[in-house]
Amino acid sequence: QVQLVESGGGLVQAGGSLRLSCAASGRTFSSYAAGWFRQAPGKEREFVATIAGINWSGVRTYYADSVKGRFTISRDNAKNTVFLQMNSLKPDDTAVYYCAAQPRPYVGSSASGYDYWGQGTQVTVSS
Questions:
Q1: Helix and strand tally (H, E) in the chain?
Q2: Residue 93 neighbours by CB distance under 10 Å
Q3: Nearest-CA neighbor of 9 among 33, 39, 32?
Q4: Which member of 17, 19, 29, 126 has the greatest number of CB atoms within 10 A?
Q5: What is d(CA 19, CA 31) in angstroms, rounded to the nearest whole number?
Q6: Which of 1, 2, 3 is nearest to 119 (CA)?
């Protein structure tokens, strides 16, 4: 069992940056795949980015086309934390951002592949 707590959301102007953090409990979190998803009002939850656990030998990160080149997912396994650095933010990035994790080396972009979810953090980008 792992618990995920997101932080770092807030209000930012278009073109600005935010860094989201997802702190996880559990001593084996480094072996978990982790991902970020977001849900805007009236829309379905959508994939943002994912990062593999330490036992994955393939490509370690994968991004949605809408954020590629602007967002970077990373993790600090010593601190059991996953990050999402968001640059060049746009009003369309406004959403509640959720961290997700799964005890497998790699999961990918499907939300159904993740069993553990955080409570979400609000990101609002003003124009």
A1: 0, 11
A2: 22
A3: 39
A4: 29
A5: 23
A6: 3
Instruction: From residue 45, give the alpha-carbon distance in Å to each of 5, 21, 27, 30.
Output: 18, 19, 28, 25
Q: Report the amino acid identity of residue 29.
A: F
Count the helix, strand and coil residues of the chain and give each as a percent rounded to the nearest 5: 10, 45, 45
pLDDT digits (tens, 9 = 90+) for 46-59: 999 999 999 898 88
Contact 5, 23 (CB under 8 A): yes
Pairwise CA distance, residues 83 & 107, whole Å: 17
- Cα end-to-end span (Å), the chain: 40
